[in-house]
């Protein structure tokens, strides 16, 4: 691990200012992706800007027809939240299935979304519910946020402060996890809500994506049988030692049916 300077700002404005002043600085949220990368020599920021003390970036609150979650809220807090369990229980289920207790206690929703790991769970929730990401300078719709492998619409130094999830009529998330990392080999988030039917898939491709053909079928009837006979193309999907592209394509259909059946 290369040497670095450590900063702990007390406001969002200070954090953004520090980041803009560094040629190779990096925000530190939960550190569950960044620190392992630094230990392996895959990342070597000159400065780490710790976000743990930023006011207004933690907590969960119902806001009209949506649920707003601060970007620095740990996965474990989402999993245990009475507000989440009341309004969008599928988010609590998703958060409870991330990593292990140590990861859930440190990892944050904002860090996960900013990282946009191709097998992460939170991108599927954001895209599957049509969330809005709030930053220090604007609001970004989830449909416009995830651009590619580890790539997002965030501009240099832009900081996610909160995420608003529209409360759906029903939703569920099901993943087939890689047993060692507990990342999603494939994960499918389905919802029916203010934005219609949405189906988001993580783990299968280079980036989270919407399965439009499944959405169209479910829009005609939100039940597992509506997906009978449909198949997902394996073209462009991931293929590695854990599963071929064809296997992942098959899993998308299987998990989508399970998610629809479990939707509440």
Task: Provide an overview of this structure.
The strands form four sheets. The chain has a five-stranded antiparallel sheet with strand order 4-5-10-6-7. A four-stranded antiparallel sheet has the order 11-12-13-14, with helices on both faces. The protein is globular. The longest helix has 18 residues, at 245-262. The termini are far apart. The protein has helices at 12-21, 34-39, 75-80, 82-87, 89-96, 101-106, 109-115, 122-129, 142-145, 212-220, 245-262; strands spanning 5-7, 25-28, 47-50, 60-63, 66-70, 132-135, 139-141, 146-148, 151-152, 160-166, 170-177, 184-193, 196-202, 209-210. The protein is built from eleven helices and 14 strands. 33% of the residues lie in helices and 25% in strands. The model has no long low-confidence stretch (mean pLDDT 96). Among the domains are: 1-54, Uridine Diphospho-n-acetylenolpyruvylglucosamine Reductase, domain 2; 170-262, CO dehydrogenase flavoprotein, C-terminal domain (Enolase-like, domain 1), CATH 3.30.390.50. With 264 residues, the protein is of the alpha+beta class.
């Amino acid at each position: 691990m290369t040497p670095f300077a450590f900063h702990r700002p007390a406001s969002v404005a200070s954090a953004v200012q520090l980041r803009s002043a560094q040629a190779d600085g990096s925000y530190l949220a939960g550190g569950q992706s960044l620190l392992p990368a630094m230990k392996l020599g895959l990342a070597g920021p000159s400065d780490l800007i710790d976000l743990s003390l930023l006011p207004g970036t933690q907590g969960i609150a119902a806001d009209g027809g949506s649920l707003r979650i601060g970007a620095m809220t740990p996965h474990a807090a989402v999993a245990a939240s009475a507000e989440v369990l009341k309004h969008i229980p599928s988010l609590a289920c998703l958060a409870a299935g991330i990593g292990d207790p140590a990861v859930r206690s440190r990892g944050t929703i904002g860090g996960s979304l900013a990282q946009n790991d191709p097998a992460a769970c939170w991108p599927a929730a954001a895209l599957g519910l049509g969330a809005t990401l709030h930053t220090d300078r604007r609001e970004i719709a989830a449909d416009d946020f995830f651009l590619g492998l580890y790539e997002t619409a965030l501009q240099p130094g832009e900081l996610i402060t909160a995420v608003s999830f529209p409360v759906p009529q029903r939703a569920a998330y099901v993943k087939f996890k890689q047993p060692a990392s507990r990342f999603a080999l494939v994960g499918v988030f389905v919802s029916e809500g203010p934005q219609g039917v949405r189906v988001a898939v993580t783990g299968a491709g280079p980036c989270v994506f919407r399965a439009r053909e499944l959405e169209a079928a479910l829009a005609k009837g939100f039940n597992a049988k509506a997906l009978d006979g449909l198949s997902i193309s394996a073209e462009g999907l991931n293929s590695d030692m854990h599963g071929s592209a064809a296997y992942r394509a098959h899993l998308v259909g299987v998990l989508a049916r399970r998610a629809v059946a479990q939707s509440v």
